[in-house]
Input
Amino acid sequence: QVQLVQSGAEVKKPGASVKVSCKTSGYTFTSYYIHWVRQAPGQGLEWMGIINPSGGSTSYAQKFQGRVTMTRDTSTSTVYMELSSLRSEDTAVYYCARTVSYGAFDIWGQGTMVTVSS
Amino acid sequence: QSALTQPASVSGSPGQSITISCTGTSSDVGGYNYVSWYQQHPGKAPKLMIYDVSKRPSGVSNRFSGSKSGNTASLTISGLQAEDESDYYCSSYTSSSTRVFGGGTKLTVL
Output
């Protein structure tokens, strides 16, 4: 079945970077875009950006420009999201989710908790 | 890009109908038929309930329906059931080729 399986929880110190993976299976990797969405504790969903697994092109929310990098590995059908210069406000659950073109997020990963604390 | 506006909370009794609104601008909700709705239970990933304003994915109850008028989209749940108690989020494609979410609505089934 179609699945997005994310890497495990992370604890980082302020100023560090974190790299979260999202391994896809059950469908053609290059046929769907992958987005990253985060949710701070008790807060709503926040869109971070998108990667096209076919060519690797990316687009990021203005808020994260310069701090986020999304990449993909077609040999393992895995997408990565790296966030740098972490601060306490980046403490959140990070989700990957797929879409077709402009469409809805139909499949989501299970989420990865990232805690930023000194 | 500002978040779409949703009511913080709505409530209803079992069997009743409720509607959650999602207000944006002509650059997102009003400009495209790419509005979707998600249900999120505590500690779980969001689940797609409505896409392209009013379409239901396979497996989603027909008690859930969506619509749009101008810059405001709406999710209606009819025949409320206890299991519908959850957080609901709307999302839209935008003119900047980005995505935006609503702030979320907590549905309480009384």
